[in-house]
# Entry
Amino acid sequence: MTHNTFSRLSLVVAAVFFCFILWIIYLANTGAQSILFDLVRHIPYGDKVGHMLLFGLLTFVANLALQSRHFTLGRIPLYYGAVLVSIFVLIEEISQGFIPSRTLDIIDLMADAIGITLFSYLSGLTQRYIDKLRQQSA
# Structure
């Protein structure tokens, strides 16, 4: 698979996954029922694990779709994908304070941050592996 094909595929996966998250948010905001919500309720700390995985995976595919472009803050690389997801998460979590069927929860925000941080690290490792493979095949 060429670099451009991988990048385009990553972008499509990121867009589809973002739409999936928007659908879940819509269901939660309207108080609708879903088998996903029932599943989460049966897992210990399922809501927190769900937050960590949903926004972590979104960060992972967003970082890969943006080819791990980043800027540095001191010695810390900040990936553009992670920054975009973080802004979205902040807006979404704060908006919950204004929606009757939702609750604003700082622990959810912490779970989101853990997922974003962990999956940013994993996407960096993945990007280095992809770059190494590309250099070997060139």
Observations:
- The mean pLDDT is 91.
